[in-house]
Hints:
- The chain is an all-alpha fold.
- The protein has helices at 12-31, 56-65, 71-91, 118-142; strands spanning 37-38, 96-97.
- It has one domain: 3-Layer(aba) Sandwich (Rossmann fold).
Amino acid sequence: xxxxxxxxxxxxxxxxxxxxxxxxxxxxxxxxxxxxxxxxxxxxxxxxxxxxxxxxxxxxxxxxxxxxxxxxxxxxxxxxxxxxxxxxxxxxxxxxxxxxxxxxxxxxxxxxxxxxxxxxxxxxxxxxxxxxxxxxxxxxxxxxxxxxxxxxxxxxxxxxxxxxxxxxxxx
Length: 171
């Protein structure tokens, strides 16, 4: 069974993600920015054993929300997703950071099977940061970065500045 980026037998969710990535890639290219893809860590693997009390949220999610799939099935789905992200990055010559490969299968780092605890988020950020360093260094060495602001703005793009009448300076 072929699992290329344009394979008709890809799960609908993955086809949707790949189509969305195409749109995102074109928009990012048009803006002159750099798109970097990462893998995604999902806590599930064949033979994984969870304490139903200590790891209750993870256990409940995997055994209720993901039922009837086994942990190995969930892991294969995650591996498919990550493989497609890596293939997309390769096809379009984008940097790819394999966060999942460097992330331990440790329930203490997860709130549920895919949301991270504070320590999990810090580890994910560290792995991502280390993966971004070569990308940043390459752009700096080529002289691509830093570059002048292409669309200078005098106000924040999402926030309206407060009117002077709303400022209260008497204390």
